[in-house]
Amino acid sequence: MKxxxxxxxxxxxxRFSQLLLMSNLALxxxxxxxxxxxxxxxxxxxxxxxxxxxxxxxDLSTASSEYLKSFGLYIATLAGNxxxxxxxxxxxxxxxxxxxxxxxxVRAKLQAVAADPVFRSSGGASWFEAKRLDYEKETSRVxxxxxxxTLSAGKASPDVASVVYDLKIEMRDGRPLxxxxxxxxxxxxxxxxxxxxxxxxxxxxxxxxxx
Length: 211
Known about the structure:
Elements: H1 3-40, E1 45-47, E2 56-58, H2 65-80, H3 87-94, H4 100-115, H5 117-121, E3 125-136, E4 141-151, E5 159-172, E6 175-185, H6 192-197
Antiparallel strand pairs: 1-2, 3-4, 4-5, 5-6
């Protein structure tokens, strides 16, 4: 019996087993690393929607300014196009895109307009025409500048007013959500620069003493 030959074969088998164990360990480490990267990866999607001239980027927590402006335009157009008969439809759509705190206020305002006796009895309608879109990166706000047209029965032409829709839009889990919404007359967005230049116009606090 060749004991030396058997011993050599056993040593070779043992070395092969050790090499196989090390390779499996290395493969496991590589697989775990790849899995970690896959779980932590937040994919960035680049889109070129047909209604936009430039490509937009969207991920879970951020989006390009063009995407946010287009979404702001969509919300402003919905809010500005109201009749006594479509208010429930509009508020239902807006509920999907507005933060709950914002939605409660916006819904109340739209319903108040639609329920106005004069607006309802005259078959009134309003529609918004956007003229310009601005974006303020520092505050994540979109400004939709345009004119609001209000038409009542018996009038040949609508009443026209310049209006700015001021929206703060955040990306949450890849979806845009309006977290603040305001509208005011005029054609000048109330940006941080505008607020700083008009700070002196704010009324001073009451400084009367208790006499």
